[in-house]
């Protein structure tokens, strides 16, 4: 994560002390509807931990990686049950997080509101890193059948981006869902669902794409 983006999340973590996020994210119902109970799930870009906590409450075996130390600290203050379940980690390279506790790989990986901070050139490597966290096929070449990748991609509209950054100064790239799906196809994933939400378009100028991909 580049310094200006990291600085935003450092300040955001401080604001959460007095202005907490809503208890449930828009991604959590998708996770609950897609992954069976007891599935092992990794949240990449876990932020302040609400989705990892929500997954645990839903009966999933959930872990998370988050590059912002301040956000990880805020997560543990709000959700003490996440102790031992959050680690430092960032795309495009994850270096097999939690291989010591989930040695066979995860059943699902969630990456919500994260890939926009990855540049176009780094996107293929980031998607490969996400795929590598999942259980492998018999020959180890691809993710095992039945594994799932859930992605939430924000699309900034109305000229809100300038020189690759949003109005908050964060590094930001609009990644077309079709391109993301095309990059994941050689890794053994097919697009099972793509939903579009304009619920916050008027307030934030952001359209949200949620992708469900299955191996």
Structural write-up:
The protein is an alpha/beta fold and 215 residues long. It has a single domain, classed as Rossmann fold. The chain has helices at 3-16, 28-34, 50-57, 69-78, 123-132, 177-184, 201-204, and strands at 40-44, 61-65, 86-87, 108-112, 148-156, 190-197, 206-214. Strands 3-2-1-4-5-7-6 form a seven-stranded mixed beta sheet. The longest helix has 14 residues, at 3-16.
Helix/strand layout:
Layout: H1 3-16, H2 28-34, E1 40-44, H3 50-57, E2 61-65, H4 69-78, E3 86-87, E4 108-112, H5 123-132, E5 148-156, H6 177-184, E6 190-197, H7 201-204, E7 206-214
Parallel strand pairs: 1-2, 1-4, 2-3, 4-5
Antiparallel strand pairs: 5-7, 6-7
Helix pairs in contact: 1-4
Briefly summarize what is shown:
The chain has 215 residues and is of the alpha/beta class. 28% of the residues lie in helices and 20% in strands.
Features:
single chain; 215 residues; alpha/beta; Rossmann fold; 7 strands
Structural class assignment: alpha/beta
Largest sheet: 7 strands, mixed
Radius of gyration: 16 Å
- Strand line-up across the major sheet: 3-2-1-4-5-7-6
Give the terminus-to-terminus CA distance.
28 Å
Element pattern in H and E: HHEHEHEEHEHEHE
Strand content: 15-25%
Number of helices: 7
Oligomer: single chain
In CATH, the architecture is 3-Layer(aba) Sandwich
Within CATH, the superfamily carries the name Vaccinia Virus protein VP39
């Amino acid at each position: 994560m580049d310094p200006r983006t990291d600085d935003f999340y450092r300040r955001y973590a401080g604001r959460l002390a007095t202005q907490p996020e809503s208890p449930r994210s828009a991604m959590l119902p998708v996770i609950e509807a897609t992954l069976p109970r007891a599935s092992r799930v990794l949240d990449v870009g876990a932020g302040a931990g609400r989705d990892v906590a929500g997954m645990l409450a839903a009966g999933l075996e959930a872990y998370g990686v988050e590059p912002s130390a301040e956000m990880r600290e805020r997560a543990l203050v709000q959700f003490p049950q996440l102790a031992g379940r959050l680690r430092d980690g960032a795309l495009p390279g994850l270096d097999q997080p939690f291989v010591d506790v989930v040695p066979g790989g995860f059943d699902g990986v969630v990456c919500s509101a994260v890939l926009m901070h990855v540049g176009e050139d780094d996107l293929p490597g980031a998607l490969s890193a996400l795929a590598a966290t999942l259980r492998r096929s018999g020959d180890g070449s691809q993710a095992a059948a039945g594994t799932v990748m859930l992605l939430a991609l924000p699309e900034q509209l109305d000229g809100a981006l300038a020189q690759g950054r949003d109005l908050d100064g964060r590094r930001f790239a609009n990644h077309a869902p079709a391109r993301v799906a095309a990059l994941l196809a050689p890794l053994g994933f097919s697009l099972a669902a793509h939903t579009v939400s304009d619920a916050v378009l008027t307030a934030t100028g952001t359209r949200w794409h949620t992708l469900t991909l299955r191996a």
